[in-house]
Design goal:
homodimer; mainly alpha; DNA-binding; Arc Repressor Mutant, subunit A; 10 helices; Tetracycline Repressor, domain 2
Chain lengths: 243, 243
DNA sequence: CTCTTATGACAACGTGATTGACGTTAAAAG
DNA sequence: CTTTTAACGTCAATCACGTTGTCATAAGAG
């Protein structure tokens, strides 16, 4: 039963940066988990770099690609570290006010903003469980808000689950839309001003009558509006539970 | 302004299957867009095939991989066709009852079920705009439900956008979780029974008190519950608009 | 100063998407 | 029925990718 959290203690990940031999690469840089994660995020933010690549990451670090495997067991291990860093960036300036609705809105907005601002990173991160410090802090904060709002421990867990997956789901598709290759992304966005705006009203009457609004809104994120709808639903649940 | 829906008319996609020269491959099969899409979905459903690969798809079709480029301009073109097929599968048995809440719940549930049942396909499809028949039918249906519920054309478009991205967002992350390689997926799922269940209650009091519920619920989809929360929010909006 | 070993570099393997050239053959033109 | 045309399947080649095994070397321990 407790074999779940078995991690290979001899694996690179678990060695601390402090005790490392600080050998330099051919180009003089000194590698570390932190530097690799930061470089990966920076690399994924530059235009033209569509996806994370060990080879390009090595190049950006001035090191041989295979050197990364001294710091992360696999690319998946690296991805989890990157994902947790993204959570950390999102949580950097959360302030808990005690107003559950404002607090959830703030956390959701911060998460969504950070993820869509780093779409290529978000695509890798949005659906992962990092089991790392920043994620744990986020769960603790989220549960706390819901507990203080009046939910019991069980309902707090349930509504936290709904809220966080709701938010990360939007982050995932909005980030994926931003992360598409130039051509495909442009075509997807233009669809609502082009294809859907000119569908015949006899076959598609509902689309035709809503076409202007669709053209205006479908290429922007629905998250802010959907979040208010969701929060209204949470409010309804709180009202039902008494209090 | 109307240059948006320019599509290259000489491209393979736009030629109809009817007028095609029906030449056989080396192994005797006769290719078509439809066969390729079906084979791709079948291939992605088989265990061990992590991602779509033109080479494996060619192998499964008994054809040279490069033959696919006679039917789809690029893999992205193929992906859009696959995505639209997935929408078609989801809409196959929708029945409109006139009860907006039941109808939205039905469509959302069907979409989410189909997408998570084909996780590898869903990962490619969830964030795309296919501009193809099945998607158009889905938009028309969705808008119709909201119009009949009492929303005007503008609000119908806005709430459709929120609803569909809400649903596809959940589909995206739930599918991504199912689509992870065996090792990574197992680790992610086990996190809530392992890592999070044994966090110290002094540092993480909220997690500790909710740990049993987290362990029970976090490895299943939050969509059904979140959907009710969302629908409650839509109800609140309808109440606010009068009627 | 010596010894150990962590770690960076290198080379190689298998797999991926994509493209251009080529030849065959089905369909269209007469 | 014959001729023509071009659609389409195949082949070969190119370049990028993740990952592993081997080797040397420099950093730290003694």
């Amino acid at each position: 039963m407790s074999t779940f959290d078995d991690r290979d203690d001899t694996a690179p990940t678990d060695r601390l940066a402090a005790g490392r031999r600080r050998r330099t690469t051919r180009t003089g840089t000194v590698l570390s988990q932190e530097l690799i994660v930061q470089t990966a995020i920076r690399l994924l933010g530059q235009p033209g770099n569509d996806a994370l690549s060990v080879r390009r990451l090595g190049l950006a670090l001035g090191a041989d690609p295979s050197a990364l495997y001294r710091y992360f067991r696999s690319t998946d291990d690296l991805v989890l570290a990157v994902a947790d860093e993204l959570i950390g960036m999102s949580l950097k300036d959360v302030r808990i006010t005690g107003d559950w609705r404002a607090d959830l809105r703030g956390i959701g907005t911060d998460l969504h903003r950070t993820y869509t601002a780093h779409p290529h990173v978000a695509v890798l991160a949005a659906s992962r469980v990092t089991r790392r410090p920043n994620e744990m802090r986020g769960v603790e904060i989220g549960l706390g808000i819901l507990r203080d709002a009046g939910f019991g421990p069980q309902d707090a867990a349930r509504y936290y689950h709904r809220f966080i997956d709701f938010t990360l789901g939007f982050a995932a598709i909005d980030a994926a839309a931003h992360a598409l290759p130039t051509e495909a992304g442009a075509a997807d966005r233009a669809a609502w001003q082009g294809t859907y705006a000119s569908l015949p009203s006899d076959r598609y009457p509902r689309i035709a009558e809503s076409a202007p609004t669709l053209a205006r809104t479908m290429s922007t994120s629905a998250y802010p509006g959907a979040l208010e709808v969701f929060l209204d639903g949470v409010q309804a649940a709180l009202d039902r539970h008494g209090r």
